[in-house]
Amino acid sequence: MITISLCLIVKNEENSLGRCLGSVHDLVDEIVIVDTGSTDRTKEIAASFNARLFDFEWIHNFAAARNYAFDQATMEYIFWLDADDVLEEKDRVLLRELKATPDFDYDSVTMHYHLSFDASGKVTSSLRRNRLVKRSCGFRWHGIVHEYLAVGGRIMDSAIAVTHRKDVPHTSRNLDIYRNQQKAGVPFSPRDQYYFANELRDHGHYAEAAGMYERFLSGKQGWVEDNINGCYKLADCYAHLEEKEKQLASLLRALTYDKPRAELCCKLGDWFQQAGNWEVAIHWYQTATMLKLPENSWGAIDHAAWTWLPHLQLCVCYDRLGKRDKAYLHHELCKMHVPDHPSVKFNEAYFQKLGYPHQGGA
Hints:
Keywords: Transferase. By secondary structure, the protein is α/β, with parallel strands linked by helices. The protein has 14 helices and eleven strands.
């Protein structure tokens, strides 16, 4: 059985830390908490779980804080979380099984990261992260913001998921760090260009964000998943700026990096739908329904695009063309995935008024 150090960096996490540690404390062999300046009950809560507590002066560098936490670990493997992450029961079972695996000798274990959910609790957005790493490999964190753990060697893609339960509003902290770096004239890596653009976009600075995305993509140095998402987000900026042709060009630019994905197909479908070009919109939405979600994808996944969303929009498009039998068919397919979605309930009432279901109606 392997031994595990759980490492977290925290600051003023009294509302979430207990929930996080409560979901995992009995699965690890030590808990390392690095505090960067808490003024609430964070340290008290950490101590109640027998955590080893360390103070680290905040220097506006997340990688530095995480590396310091890793340096304090003493067990064979290091498992890292944020204070607003939890392990659900099914994932606790999987981690317990993994820990007991005989002759376990991987250098890193990736896990799903469930980021958002619909009203029924279904995952709507997820990606993968390296979560459990062999301490002797000496893997290090990089990046002042949106840091990443550089790993290599034998990697296992597990079925375990870490669930993100963010319960505090976003702040301008990350944007401020990038602004200060920009003001100081510190060069931005391609990855920092991408994440700086994300922060600008998230704070509504669409024109400035578009410029940074363009700079990032033109440099041709980014990770392919960042490139693809950069195209999507650049298109979103142009949509807010009401530059429709640039929005479409940005979406089509994603095709230079990979074959069409359901997310892109739905975005293209939406563009043509908004333009009233129902036939072309239908083409892209239908394409989305025929694609298979790649296994162990590292990119961000919009699960709606791979399941119910294209059917919902095909229902709308076919209805606009007066092809109500086809519209009803896609309504039924959408309903199989999200029967309680407000749009599905609205469409259900709409079709009932039209006399559906009826013979030949589907």
